[in-house]
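explain this:

___
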Amino acid sequence: MRYQRIPTKTKAMADGFNEARALRITEIMTEFQSLQRRIAEYSPNPSPEEYFEEGYEVLRQCRAEAQAVLVAPYPVEPSQVSSSPDDSEKRQLQRIIVDASARRFQSKKIYLRAVAAVRWSNARNSILQSGKPLQQQAVLLQQANANLYTELAAVTDTRIYNEFLETDSEAGYWLREDPPLATILNWIRAHPA
């Protein structure tokens, strides 16, 4: 949906885009929630012998990171003197867009890592077929590990940002104030989960 200035009879907004900003926050947070739900569905249940295998460690780490992103408080910034309540609302919505974008970004990165670990687990289970590792399966298990490392290495900040940019553009979302990758990464560094 393309957005343009929206005149309203009830109140004049600072620049006419606060409704679009609020809708954009909803779009970003909806995807964030979806990613969080999908990550939560991955609950590894390895045998005690497999507990410390790389893929299961990645899955446990992903679940812990996702939980930390989910419960991290919204960073309240000191209020600034504003010329109008609408300007104040505009700045607040812009801050929320950055916060929501960073959380969605973090969740997508965690999700992609979790998917790689689940693929590894599925490959491992297929190779072992509920048995203990045998010598003749060593090469296949090493290949599954190599595939995991390759997939994890492919989860880059640029890839994730470009995927969001592409899918959000295709969906016709209002991206005028979506933060650039550098802003997202700076927010993440400034607000560790």
Q: What stands out?
A: The radius of gyration is 21 Å. Confidence is low (pLDDT under 50) at residues 1-13. The helical segments are 18-41, 54-71, 85-128, 138-153, 157-170, 181-190.
